[in-house]
Amino acid sequence: MARVSSIVTNFQAGELSPRLEGRIDLQKYSAGAQTLQNMLTFPQGGITRRPGTEYAGTSKDGGKVRLINFEFSDTQAYVLEFGANYIRFFKDGEILTEATKAISGATKANPVVITATGHSYSNGDRVFISGVVGMTELNNREFTVANQTTNTFELSGINGSAFTTYTSGGTSGKIVEVTTTYSVTDIFEINHAQSADVLYLAHKIHEPAKLTRTTETSFTLSDIDFIDGPYLDENITTTTITSDANTGTVTLTASADLFESGHVGALFQFRERVEIGHEAWAASTSYAQNDLVHFEGNLYKKTDSGSDSSGTQPPVHLEGTETYGVIDWEYQHSGTGFVKVTAVTNATTATAVVQTHNFLVLPAVATDGTTQWSEGSFCTKNGFPRAVAFYEERLYFAGTTAQPQTIFGSATADFENHTAGTDDDKAINVTIASDQVNVIKHMLPGRFLQIMTTSSEFTLSGGTGTTAVTPTNVNVLRETTFGSGDVRPLRAGASTIMVQKGGEKVKEVTFSLDTDGLVGRDLTVLGEHLARGGLTDMIWQQEPELVLWFVRADGVLIGLSYDPANNTIGWHQHPLGGTAVVESITAIPSGSEDQVYLSVKRTINSATVRHIVLIKTLSFDTIDDAFFVDSGFTYSGSATTTITGLNHLEGETVQILADGSTHADKTVSSGSITLDRSASKVHLGFSYDSLVKTLRMEAGAEDGIAQGKIKRIHGVTVRFLETVGAEVGPDTSNLDRIPFRDSSMGMDASVPLFNGDKEITFPSGYENDAQVVVRQSQPLPMTIVAIMRRSNTFDA
Questions:
Q1: Can you tell me the distance from the alpha carbon of 394 to that of 637, in angstroms, rounded to the nearest whole number?
Q2: CA 342 → CA 227, 260, 268, 334, 349, distances in Å?
């Protein structure tokens, strides 16, 4: 006996699958697994085809890179390309260059010689050329400058003998680049935190550094020159250190073996109690030149000649020289002073430079020899912090080798100052008290400062409510015990998203009023197969839709539609066209959307390259603007059959949308293709398929559920939104293309976007699974609102 049923798979209502929507009904969804590829899920709009990726450039020399966002403002946002020993920048979908120079000539020679009057380039500079008329082989490419003169330069290694003759125009711009010491391995271990136009960088084997934006096209990178500290605990041994002077370059001598090569760059602090070694300032007292006095913990020296009597006002300034009555008092120090080691001679001798950030000279005990010294926390010997974050107007570092559980917070609103003290605005130094070593890997500001370690998650706060953190009021609590992986965690709405230490689980950590602390939820339980192999990078895109993007270890792009307020949590994978392997991802604001950038490894023309691409906008007004190709390029201008500037796709077969209509595929040769018909707006790039496959059908039966019974789908209706082109069938080998053009449409015009239902006679047999597959393989948009199946279930 057969049971006839009409089944609606309605994405808007959330009945697609537990792996997509997170609604688990064992009776309805006990079998099968939903397939979603190159599709995005939305709480109120069904599922839509992922837009394509637009080519923005290539990494330097095709090397592996990491992309990091830099957001000065919504209109001044950059993507940083961190490669082997360099940083380059992308802005508005293009490589960042200095002011461009006009090109007035280009030779058909080996190598090509460019004429650009007063270009000011140096040999070895990288330049980006565009807008050339005639010799279009040069357009949208970067080159290395060689044999430059005042008004000309060669394009190193470029043979232009067979190029088209130069006609006119074109510009060249020097690519903005900053030199670093980070290797290819190092760049994926960098942690970062930004304040306005300064990006602070932390890495376990590199000194903390900062990248500063000085103009829209100018950046500088420098190691942080800390005003003071931080330091390890003060020495408790009998070993003394003696300095041969209290200013300038000095020689340090230890009474026992102490120094090693890893101390180069380290700070050493000397401390004395000024009230013990010096007289207190007193009113109406005669003082001679060079006399030293202390007041409220600060030491001062009389610098004017002769003897003078003090008045009633004591010296209170903290730098330079000021006059009180008739006496000039020069500030010396506040009981501490420190040096930076520049060389180590042997285990007992080192050379150092006295630092004068907040004092003038070293305390006298340094030249006398003292056991009251402290070793700097940050150096090669002790390791450098691997985590950095801002919280409550302080810059925090954490996770050094010598102090893996210690958190170093700067002075309030003085990010490079770690002067210790008990005043509320002094630096904070706190170590997690735990029953096991928890190496701090990441820190993230939220309601509290969240501290992610190798085995647990902690919060740092001032206690309850809005109480501020101070040196005497620090509360560190263990919250969860997931353990963090190498992927930098992020904030998504009110939640923290982190990849667990195994790399295959994504945890959502939120604040719970019930527990007055953090609680976690495993998001990958709804699609655990998609994270297998490990996740290596992630980013949060808020506009136009809420999507968490992940890079899997094998280079597949994974998406998680994440809108917990509307109970939407849906996983899907996004393989890119061609030989794409995604290696890094980031996002920056761009107008009304967040622009997602990817670093994609490809093999092009038998060479390994890395394309920097950005995911195109979901919004378009007409079919002409639909962009559904990967590493794509857009031509917009006068109608033409020749499209140039395609060197990044040399030798590749590309899919084409010309004036809103599909076009036969073409192979790129000499950086160009020839169309079969002229067009004024052309999108082209690698093709990719978008595919939806429903779960095994559950329509009920006379004696229970339909699972395990023979079923037959004899009709399907698909409800589309702003769609052109689709194929429907029972599996990928048996798909029928749905017609979207009808007799009322002109054959010389593109098919308009379709909204409504398409009814399909379904070529299905009798089977257990009874699934529906919908695929889009053309460079056209497709959004599915619902799939309505008409079927029979056979109980016998």
A1: 52
A2: 17, 12, 11, 24, 11
pLDDT tens sequence across 412-447:
999 999 999 999 999 999 999 877 788 999 999 988
* Cβ-contact 224, 347 below 8 angstroms: no
As a whole number of angstroms, the distance between CA 26 and CA 103 comes to 68
pLDDT tens for 227-267 read 999 999 999 999 999 999 999 999 999 999 999 999 999 99
**Other Cβ atoms closer than 10 A to 129:** 23
Each residue's pLDDT tens digit, 106-155? 999 999 999 999 999 999 999 999 999 999 999 999 999 999 999 999 99
Q: Are 759 and 717 in contact (CB under 8 A)?
A: yes
Q: What is the pLDDT of the chain when averaged over all its residues? A: 90
Alpha-carbon distance of 492 to 507, in angstroms, equals: 12
Helix (H, G, I), strand (E, B) or coil at 185: helix
Task: Check whether 44 has a pLDDT greater than 70.
Answer: no
The CA distance from 587 to 56, in Å, is 14
* Spatial separation of the C-alpha atoms in residues 778 and 656, rounded to whole Å: 9
Tokens, residue 220: 């500088």
Report the greatest alpha carbon distance in the chain: 119
Q: Is the pLDDT of residue 728 over 70?
A: yes
Predicted pLDDT at 29: 26
Which three-class secondary structure state does DSSP give residue 360?
coil
Q: Ramachandran region of residue 195, left (φ > 0), alpha (ψ -120 to 50) or beta?
A: beta
| Positions of E strands within 175-320 | 177-179, 191-195, 198-203, 206-215, 218-223, 241-243, 249-254, 267-271, 279-280, 286-287, 292-295, 298-302, 308-309
Report residue 99 CA to chain centroid gap: 27
CA distances from 175 to 17, 86, 356, 406, 584 (A): 48, 12, 38, 40, 21
**Is residue 713 within 8 Å of residue 787, measured between CB atoms?**
no
